[in-house]
């Protein structure tokens, strides 16, 4: 396990709290070294450990946007506070996707499948406002006491799509905290490894069209996964990230 690049990355971050997501050693390990094969090897070791999945389950949950968030490493301080997996499973509804920013910068690598990011800007200087471009802006903040993400309506803004960015398997990208975007997964399972930087601001924003069905919900509870759920998810990821080329070659020989 000590030679596994994902294990090495987590240890590097754990041992060096001052390292940021832009540190050369962190960027090299994430961009040049880690592949889905290394994720497969890492998780295969995790599921055979009695306590590891239980620790991971303490901070892992299904995000309100429909993807699974599995936190491999977490700490309250440091320039990198979390190392986590985001998994979008096929067949899940992602039609009602929030446009949002984050409280932190992050760097991420697509280990399986692909993602598409649509980037937006708020137009403050619009002379002729168009209803088609109207979005309601909500401030969004996690409340640790209630274990929920609370939102509060602020006002209506004019939003413009700036560009679309495709991230195929193997691509590493950085997202700044103030970049307004939405994430669209590919048709099959998509898995990313994400390094979360320290918080840059207290609140994030979410933008929704006026006719959005869930816009009046005041908060989202975070229902944490239990041990069996995390263990089951890891086993599904292991199956999806197996080197099928080598498996097929072995079957052909026999």
Number of helices in the DSSP assignment: 6
Shape: globular
CATH class: Mainly Beta
- Name of the CATH architecture: Sandwich
Low-confidence stretches: 245-254
Largest sheet: 7 strands, antiparallel
How many β-strand runs?
Answer: 13
> Which structural class should the secondary elements be placed in?
alpha+beta
The CATH superfamily label reads Jelly Rolls
Average pLDDT level: 89
| CATH fold group | Jelly Rolls
Relative strand content: 35-45%
Overall tally of structural domains: 1
Fraction of residues in helices?
10-25%
Distance between the amino and carboxyl termini: 30 Å
Describe the overall structure.
There is one protein chain. This protein has six helices and 13 strands. By secondary structure, the chain is an alpha+beta fold. It has one domain (about 5-215, about 225-245): Jelly Rolls, CATH 2.60.120. Strands 4, 6, 7, 8, 10, 12 and 13 form a seven-stranded antiparallel beta sheet that branches. A six-stranded antiparallel beta sheet has the order 1-2-3-11-5-9. It is globular, with a radius of gyration of 19 Å. About 30% of the residues are buried. Mean pLDDT is about 90; it is low at about 245-254.
């Amino acid at each position: 396990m000590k030679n596994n690049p994902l294990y090495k990355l987590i240890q590097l971050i754990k041992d060096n709290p001052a390292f940021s997501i832009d540190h050369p050693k962190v960027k090299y390990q994430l961009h040049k070294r880690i592949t889905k094969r290394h994720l497969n090897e890492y998780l295969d070791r995790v599921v055979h450990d009695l306590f590891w999945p239980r620790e991971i389950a303490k901070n892992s949950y299904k995000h309100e946007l429909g993807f699974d968030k599995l936190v491999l490493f977490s700490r309250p301080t440091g320039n990198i506070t979390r190392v986590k997996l985001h998994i979008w499973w096929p067949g899940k509804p992602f039609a009602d996707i929030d446009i949002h920013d984050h409280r932190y910068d992050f760097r991420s690598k697509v280990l399986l499948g692909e993602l598409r990011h649509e980037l937006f800007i708020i137009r403050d200087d619009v002379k002729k406002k168009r209803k088609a471009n109207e979005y309601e802006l909500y401030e969004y903040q996690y409340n640790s006491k209630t274990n929920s993400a609370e939102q509060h309506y602020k006002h209506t803004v004019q939003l413009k799509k700036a560009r679309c960015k495709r991230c195929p398997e193997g691509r590493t990208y950085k997202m700044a905290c103030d970049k307004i975007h939405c994430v669209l997964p590919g048709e099959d399972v998509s898995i990313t490894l994400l390094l979360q930087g320290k918080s840059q601001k207290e609140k994030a924003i979410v933008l929704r069209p006026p006719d959005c069905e869930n816009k009046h919900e005041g908060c989202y509870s975070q229902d944490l996964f239990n041990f069996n759920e995390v263990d089951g998810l890891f086993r599904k990821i292991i199956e999806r990230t197996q080197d099928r080329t080598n498996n097929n070659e072995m079957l052909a020989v026999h």
